[in-house]
Amino acid sequence: MENVADALSVGLIGLFLCLTVRRTGTLWFAIGFHFAFDFAALSLLGAPNTGNMGKAAEGHLLDATFSGPDWLTGGARGIEASALVFVVIALLFALFHFRHRQVRFPIPRS
User: Fold this and answer.
1) Most buried residue among 29, 66, 77, 81 by CB atoms closer than 10 A?
2) Cα–Cα distance measured from residue 47 to residue 85, given in angstroms and rounded to the nearest whole number
3) Residue 35 has what pLDDT?
């Protein structure tokens, strides 16, 4: 069920998480971000996901509906296959870059 937009967005989110590790020097931000993203999309909003055959996970908190063309909503692939996710990822890169400018990993040698 994957498509090019889904693969690109997942790859870019992976690169963003690599940036967070390099700038913070720890995995904790990346782990927390990944958990929060998945929790919000699947457990709170009940967004469809390819791992669940394009259906919302059972037991989600909100009963959100996603209407519109697949390129805008992600369709059965979920919000990470949406065209809007690229804008969000670009903002994440920019905001994190300006908030955490110093490279902390690897630890500089004296």
Assistant:
1) 81
2) 14
3) 96
- Name all contacts of 47-53 with Cβ < 8 Å and 24+ positions apart: 47/74, 47/78, 47/79, 48/74, 48/75, 48/76, 48/77, 48/78, 49/77, 49/78, 50/1, 50/2, 50/6, 50/76, 50/77, 50/78, 53/1
Which two three-digit tokens encode residue 4?
């090019």
Partnered with residue 49 across adjacent β-strands are 55
Contact (CB, 8 A) for 25 and 102: no
Q: Which of 98, 101, 53 is nearest to 76 (CA)?
A: 53
Nearest to 50 by CA among 34, 74, 32: 74
Domain parsing of the chain, residue ranges: 4-99
